[in-house]
Backbone:
């Protein structure tokens, strides 16, 4: 088995350069409250932003979610019965986005494009179908409008969500967003149609600086009506107003009078303000007598802590768009009731009826925020159960509760199934600290696994298991602040014999300025562990999990041992999980080689962590991942059914270019000479070799012969990538291991 694991990991490392990676999976059933969760492995929702669109071109409107908590796009495909099914294999095709993302078809080609945040503004990605697969190209790095002959960006505050709809009804997308130096809403009118370009251009003018003739109050969410401003109607308002703080905008027409209305969320409030337009959509006038400061006051008013945002998508499959409301604050917000659904009743006077506050959340494992899955046979039946820790569940007025969840493996050894048994495992919600991070191992050599867990204060604590081998676990609190270990903040421990001396050591991830990992080697015995700050390496392998320019790193170590190597995977604040090859001579000092820069095809989210196990005994490893959104995802090298190919019937698409350049490299691994041999007749090509950090260490240009020999004898041991590129842009990358 260990030899197989090593081969699996070795092949995984070599696969990255040729883009064969781990695949997201969803086939392990998860049962909660007697119900099998249809989207159990979604990974959680905290700050969802909802859009609708037919992403796979099957004639049904899918659900496209951007979760601001983890800056992550999630795709849920609608099936023939109107149910949503999570499609994680599509995520790798989407661009990296932060803060907000709204899907709109701006160029009228039937494909959903993306309007997204960029520093103090809005950028746009255009969707294309290439060979039946989704792709996105950047259409605009920054949306601008003409101001007296100068191009000026359409300002969007860091926390705002703008209103993006066809306001004037001409077929192209217009934008309403709060003014950067005040509390009014300019309308940026798209002139693509007016200028004869159809709807595929993004040409804006500031039509009016106070669309709707209203402004927000300076210190509250009260609204001032019937103000005057330039453009459309009225005269310019005076300058020098207060700087805008934060608001969200939904433009919609719930009463179906063909006049665009508005729903506003404010950064300091839980409620939403509805403004009804009694004039044309272009020259809007929000009527003071029709305002609703606790919308919908005729039903259950939204009360979403804090800074709510509203979205308009048909999720009940009746052809009418429903109202969805979610928090938009990244600092303090509800995280288990963060998706309010109001069904559209069709009544234009009272159009929305509250359904639930956990839409989609109730279909997945969701434990609040900052989840971490690990595995331990709690009941002694020989099957590994799943223990999931959260960072916290957010309750009213800032109260948070951290705890553990116990999922019993109710399957068989070849087919796992997890059933929620206890949502407060060991009663640790009363422990008094958040961000509990458990790890299990036999510290006293009595045949059962004991419990160590870290907390948000950087401390670790010891609970002894007194059950004995084969019995259901029975933990007793044994030592708080275990050996006075303190790693600063957010201790994330793993019990494992790092130095192969037969004693369990401690690897501890932490917040840290750079996300360093601490290594405490056990200087005791198999029955009496001893740890000391004096017997520790506070910068294990000189690993830093922070992304340059971003601190801290929030490291989360997972060491996987094989018969001949140890691979250390490290989760991080930014969400990338990297793999390092441990050097046994550098455990107490020195550095480790980075061999896997990014483990997964796309980021699962922010603040990631990892547990690795062969849960179904098929000699294939499963990778279970927690993240800031509070759920769990899992991956395997076994590929599921492919949903990335799109039905392009009736759609004009660009044909895929045959850009693959075929060549072989041998021997692999190599210690001295590496041979590169083209399998086709190609002239004028270049050859480059890169290390795992992306640095080019060897280059040849204008090559004419079909075979090359490279002397790599002086190179450091590790993984390298060979890239061949023709003048026409055809290329391929392959990897090899230098011994």
Residues:
């Amino acid at each position: 088995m260990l030899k197989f694991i090593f081969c699996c990991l070795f092949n995984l490392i070599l696969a990255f350069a040729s883009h064969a990676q781990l695949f997201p999976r969803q086939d392990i059933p998860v049962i909660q409250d007697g119900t099998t969760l249809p989207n159990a492995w979604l990974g959680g929702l905290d700050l969802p932003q909802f859009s609708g669109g037919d992403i796979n071109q099957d004639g049904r409107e899918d659900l496209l979610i951007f979760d601001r908590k983890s800056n992550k796009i999630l795709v849920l495909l609608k099936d023939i019965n109107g149910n949503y099914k999570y499609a994680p294999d599509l995520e790798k095709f989407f661009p990296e986005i932060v803060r907000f993302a709204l899907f709109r078809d701006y160029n009228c080609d039937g494909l959903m494009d993306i309007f997204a945040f960029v520093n103090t503004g809005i950028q746009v990605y255009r969707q294309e179908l290439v060979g039946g697969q989704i792709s996105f190209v950047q259409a605009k790095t920054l949306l601008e409008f003409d101001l007296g002959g100068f191009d000026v960006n359409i300002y969007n505050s860091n926390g705002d969500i703008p209103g993006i709809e066809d306001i004037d009804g001409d077929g192209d997308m217009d934008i309403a967003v709060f003014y950067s130096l005040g509390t009014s809403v300019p309308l940026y009118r798209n002139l693509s149609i007016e200028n004869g370009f159809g709807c595929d251009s993004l040409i804006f003018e500031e039509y009016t600086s106070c669309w709707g003739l209203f402004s927000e109050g300076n210190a509250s969410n009260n609204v001032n009506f019937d103000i005057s401003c330039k453009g459309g109607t009225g005269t310019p308002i005076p300058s020098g107003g207060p700087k805008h703080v934060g608001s969200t905008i939904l433009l919609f027409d719930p009463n179906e009078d063909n006049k665009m209305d508005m729903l506003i969320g404010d950064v300091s409030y839980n409620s939403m303000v509805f403004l009804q337009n009694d004039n044309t959509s272009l020259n809007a006038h929000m009527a003071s007598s029709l305002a609703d400061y606790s919308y919908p006051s005729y039903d259950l008013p939204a009360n979403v802590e804090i800074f709510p945002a509203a979205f308009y998508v048909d999720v009940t499959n009746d052809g009418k768009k429903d109202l969805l409301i979610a928090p938009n604050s990244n600092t303090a917000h509800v995280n288990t009731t963060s998706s309010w659904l109001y069904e559209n009743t069709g009544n234009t006077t009272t159009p929305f009826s509250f359904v639930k506050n956990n839409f989609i959340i109730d279909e997945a494992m969701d434990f609040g925020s900052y989840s971490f899955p690990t595995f331990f046979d709690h009941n002694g039946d020989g099957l590994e159960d799943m223990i999931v820790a959260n960072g916290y569940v957010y309750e009213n007025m800032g109260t948070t509760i951290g705890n553990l969840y116990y999922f019993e493996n109710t399957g068989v050894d070849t087919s796992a199934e997890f059933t929620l048994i206890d949502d407060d495992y060991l009663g640790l919600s009363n422990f008094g600290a958040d961000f509990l991070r458990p790890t299990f191992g036999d510290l006293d050599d009595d045949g059962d696994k004991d419990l160590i867990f870290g907390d948000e204060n950087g401390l670790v604590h010891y609970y002894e298991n007194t059950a004995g081998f084969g019995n259901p676990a029975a933990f007793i609190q044994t030592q708080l602040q275990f050996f006075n270990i303190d790693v600063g903040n957010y201790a994330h421990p793993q019990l494992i014999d790092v130095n192969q001396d037969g004693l369990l050591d401690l690897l501890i991830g932490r917040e840290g300025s750079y996300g360093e990992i601490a290594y405490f080697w056990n200087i005791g015995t198999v029955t009496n562990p001893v740890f000391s700050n004096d017997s520790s390496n506070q910068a294990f392998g000189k690993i830093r999990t922070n992304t340059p320019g971003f601190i801290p790193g929030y490291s989360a170590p997972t060491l996987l041992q094989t018969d001949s190597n140890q691979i250390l995977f490290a989760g991080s604040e930014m969400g990338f999980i990297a793999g390092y090859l441990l050097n046994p001579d550098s455990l107490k000092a020195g550095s480790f080689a980075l061999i896997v820069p990014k483990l997964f095809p796309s980021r699962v989210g922010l603040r990631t962590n990892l547990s690795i196990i062969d849960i179904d005994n098929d000699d294939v490893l499963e990778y279970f991942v927690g993240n800031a959104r509070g759920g769990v995802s899992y991956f395997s090298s076994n590929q599921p059914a492919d949903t990335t190919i799109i039905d392009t019937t009736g759609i004009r698409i660009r044909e895929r270019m045959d850009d693959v350049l075929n060549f072989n490299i041998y021997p692999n691994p190599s210690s001295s000479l590496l041979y590169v041999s083209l399998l086709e007749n190609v002239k004028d090509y270049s050859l480059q070799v890169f290390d795992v950090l992306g640095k080019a260490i060897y280059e040849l240009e204008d090559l004419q012969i079909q075979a090359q020999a490279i002397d790599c004898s002086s190179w450091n041991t590790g993984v390298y990538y060979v890239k061949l590129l023709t003048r026409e842009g055809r290329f391929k990358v392959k990897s090899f291991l230098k011994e």
About this structure: The chain has one helix and 54 strands. Residues 2-15 form the longest helix (14 residues).
